[in-house]
UniProtKB/TrEMBL annotation:
UniProt cross-references to InterPro entries, sorted A to Z: ATR-like_M-HEAT (IPR056802), DDR_Repair_Kinase (IPR050517), FATC_dom (IPR003152), HEAT_ATR (IPR057564), Kinase-like_dom_sf (IPR011009), PI3/4_kinase_cat_dom (IPR000403), PI3/4_kinase_cat_sf (IPR036940), PI3/4_kinase_CS (IPR018936)
Residue ranges annotated for the PI3K/PI4K catalytic domain, each copy included: 854-1194
The family this protein is said to belong to: Belongs to the PI3/PI4-kinase family. ATM subfamily.
Keywords on record: ATP-binding, Cell cycle, DNA damage, DNA repair, Kinase, Nucleotide-binding, Nucleus, Serine/threonine-protein kinase, Signal, Transferase
Name of this protein: Serine/threonine-protein kinase ATR
Pfam families named in the record: FAT (PF02259), FATC (PF02260), HEAT_ATR (PF23593), M-HEAT_ATR (PF25030), PI3_PI4_kinase (PF00454)
E.C. numbers: 2.7.11.1
Organism field: Liquidambar formosana
Boundaries of every FAT domain copy: 130-743
SMART domains: FATC (SM01343), PI3Kc (SM00146)
Enzyme class: transferase
Catalytic activity: L-threonyl-[protein] + ATP = O-phospho-L-threonyl-[protein] + ADP + H(+); L-seryl-[protein] + ATP = O-phospho-L-seryl-[protein] + ADP + H(+)
Signal peptide per UniProt: 1-19
Superkingdom field: Eukaryota
Amino acid sequence: MQTAIYLLPYLVLNAVCHGTQEARHGITEEILSVLDAAASENSGAAVHGISSGQSEVCIQAVFTLLDNLGQWADDVEQEITLSQSFQTSGSRKQASKLKDQGPDPLADPDQLLVQCKYVSELLAAIPKVTLAKASFRCHAYARSLMYFESHVRGKSGSFNPAAERSGIFEDEDVSFLMEIYSCLDEPDGLSGLACLRKSLSLQDQLLINKKAGNWAEVLTSCEQALQMEPTSVQRHSDVLNCLLNMCHLQAMVTHVDGLISRIPQYKKTWCMQGVQAAWRLGRWDLMNEYLNGAVEEGLLCSSSESNASFDMDVAKILQAMMRKDQFSVAEELALSKQALIASLAAAGMDSYIRAYPFVVKLHMLRELEDFHILLVDNSFLEKSFHLGDPGFSKVIENWENRLRFTQPSLWAREPLLAFRRLVFGASGLGSQVGNCWLQYAKLCRLASHYETANRAILEAQASGAPNVHIEKAKLLWSTRRSDGAIAELQQSLLNMPVEVVGSAAISSITSLSLVPLNPPPLLCDTQALNENRDIAKTLLLYSRWIHYTGQKQKEDVISLYSRVRELQPKWEKGFFYMAKYCDEVLADARRRQEESSELSPRIIPSTSAIVASTNLNTEKRWWSSLPDVLLFYAKGLHRGHKILFQALPRLLTLWFDFGSFYQRSGSSSNKELKNVHGKVMSIMRGCLKDLPTYQWLTVLPQLVSRICHQNEEIVRLVKHIITSVLRQYPQQALWIMAAVSKSTVPSRREAAAEIIQAARKGSSQGNGGNNLFVQFASLIDHLIRLCFHTGQPKSRTINISTEFSALKRMMPLGIIMPIQQSLTVCLPTYDMNLTDALTSDIFSATDLPSISGIADEAEILSSLQRPKKTVLMVNQDGIILVIFVTKVKLFFGVFRLFFWVVMASNWPFLCKPKDDLRKDARMMEFTAMINRLLSKYPESRRRKLYIRTFAVIPLTEDCGMVEWVPHTRGLRHILQDIYINCGKFDRQKTNPQIKRIYDHCQGKMPEEEMLKNKILPMFPPVFHKWFLNTFSEPAAWFRARVAYAHTTAVWSMVGHIVGLGDRHGENILFDSTTGDCVHVDFSCLFDKGLQLEKPELVPFRLTQNMIDGLGITGYEGIFLRVCEITLSLLRTHRETLMSVLETFIHDPLVEWTKSHKSSGVEVQNPHAQRAISNIEARLQGVVVGVGAAPSLPLAVEGQARRLIAEAVSHKNLGKMYVWWMPWF
């Protein structure tokens, strides 16, 4: 069978290319007969005379055949077009090379064109609608979407406001697309389609509410539909399905019994659905009754069959277990597996995503098998287990581990948890049953299925599960019922033992007293420790929500946080949230006191002003509480590193800010301030002593930016910290220190030299470590020379052996290659019993390849800055690195020539002169922080949002090295090739023609009209073709397009926040293995694009082709929703992000220092301050830095919509610089 499927495309291609017209017609008819049978409404995806599983294999074989034929035709057309393009541009040599590499190098081009025509005619004869419906019936939903989108695009176009015209869709097409999306588990896309309909049908509303988990609304819609069609079997089936998803299992059973008596001809259907509720309820008499009814002859509703057939198999296995029928159990298990295997084989030919539901069902069967083995010869109704039983405990532990490896989605885990509830329930383990209900409730909550989550919580409560109140409160909080959530936790805390919660905490909760009472001593046995942990979790959640909503006085909140710390003194979260709250209180006090001191000399005091002034005078100075804030952050960091990336940058920011304030205040006159300063310095010295060095490594750029702080005591301690990092992690720290050691500001350069000298003296690696420092300094000098080396006039290469012979002689080196994985800190698993956290090794030696050699020749890239591209390669052992500088593509040449050079083990780098790469390095730090936040925020974690990052190593303030991102290609090159294939672009003529149009229309018509009527008609949007050509497998195509939408949306929002400009087609790359959008070249940061001769008016690039790549819904749906999620996250964590960006203020860019010369000590840089204030405004919802007038602060949704409107505006795009190419 496998051999036949493999050979089929070759045989058919041969018959189509070399056979008769009759043979081609016969092949087309045969393919259509298989697809028509699969696409028909009542087929159940079965071809006549063949079983359902085998039928799916047949249909999948047809899909694979069509994929191969389409790929062959595309390859032939592309090679012929590119060959002709090179011939017209005079590159005969390239044309001949391409011809030799074509699908059939011996074939005549004219003959190939004829064969290609035959294949294209066969493919065109198969309607896309038929393919889409056949794919949908066999659950190949990604394939169905690909075909149907192609059909709709050809008929109606796509939604694309940035293009010449935008498509208008028929409602029935949108409805089918919505059905496909609902099966793809992509609710964001579903909401986008809803925007394209003129009006939503009842079925559309059902789909949207089902995906959103609004089952109460689904039930209402089903009831409404039943009023219109009282005898509709499909509608009754929908109601039953809705009750099942709402966990209203008893109501479902009652409904099934009623339907059996009222519509008996469909008894088979009702019984099959009734089985789903009966085995979950443990109603074995009902289950037997429904199983008997399900095997009787009768009419069947096709939609219910696919949903309930597996549950029927599970029920039959459970029935056999109850009867102690060993043979029947084994037989039913075998039959169930057999029924899945054929479908699994067909799905596996397509993609793992399509196969995964069958894998989950096999997982379930395996657990049934495990349970059967445990029972031996007993019925599970007779034999009970207890948690102390070693065999039972081992099986449960195994199940828990297996569950963790499943996809954390509702549909995958619900049957597994239902079965476990049954197992625990049969043994009377109520708390374990309740725990399963709690896990289910959490899954429902995270999927926004709030009604079902509430039902599961009620069941958990009835089963006696511990800590139900926390999940219930989280559900209330998720549904924006904050008062109810807080009340739930408050009631739970008041019901807990007073001696554990603490009298002071109880007083704060009830607000009866603000007098702190001495808490009683804590119990120390294991049960008490667990109880303390649960109470501490509840109290912390309560405190955080009280803090967020502002429902209590400051003293009450501090009292609550303090009790959390007392209950769990080794818990980092208690200290971190206490620090965060006190930090906010401190910031508020500082703002009020500074405003008061500014206003007081100018205002005649009124009575109310005097009262306010008196209150401020009696209030402690803001800086008096700073030592406590720093101490709480420090203690949290000492206990773990889950909050490292939020806490340590903030701790440093507070320290540095206070140091500046202390220096400005004339410290000698204020004894109290001097005392606070002493405490602060003592705390920071304690941090240096107690915190693991790897924690300081994560904030090294922030520390390095402050080595010229005004406060000399701070400078001394900063130097000590950096020195300790250099001694323990010299390989990583030296690369980070490279730029500052070559700074043009003497004080910065001298401070760096002093630190490096101190680190060399005390290096833990002895003479070897000392040698490393010497080698590194020499290597940096050579790399800087290489960056700026111009080579001979008109020469494309540099001879390393002759011109850099000293560099050649240095090899091999013991210096690591500065790739991202070698420079990124991998946090160790934190063990509370760890005696010496300082010894934690966060870099494994085998993961750190080192430089071993360098090739003889380098080629200079053809661009204004003449950068050199070096390719670093690893030897076979994976440890030693060899630097090879190879011949690579030119900036304005054909990109695909690059790929034959680079193999899997290479790490190419770009050595860039005349560019301040500190901006790029800071941008990578900023995006690394955003990635950490994205991985924690539930909405972004569920969608697996991230930004692609890479290593950037500034060598000086105007040159450096950038890690090359593999498998990527620029937008301009991708689109240019597609337009060449379509006959829309000529390498010699098209660009001059566009320039003439721009010049001719200047001053004669508005830019908007010129772009829309003259330029855009020449270039219809085509970027969707890149996804179709690059990702031939439909599931990979869909994944790539979703990844493109996600990464583009995240980058768009992040880029706007930091004022990222110069987003032309060569600075936006796309990964041909994942579809990811990757931005490079951050030289135009902080709104510099608005200062160009032709200002970059759009907030980010969302041209017609960028929208085209998102699918026919355009930016509606996935892109817009991810924009909203990203903006929400950025705005929520603005303080954390600003602590990373503020390094710019203290390590000013070259372009800022030209007009503002720096002295030996830090000064406030106006350019940096302006850039930071713009970022802060955007993080508050103000639209600044785009072509439109600034706005008042907008909500997240309003800000996202407004920015997209500015980005797609023809008015803005028409004013862009011509070679920014707004038509691409």
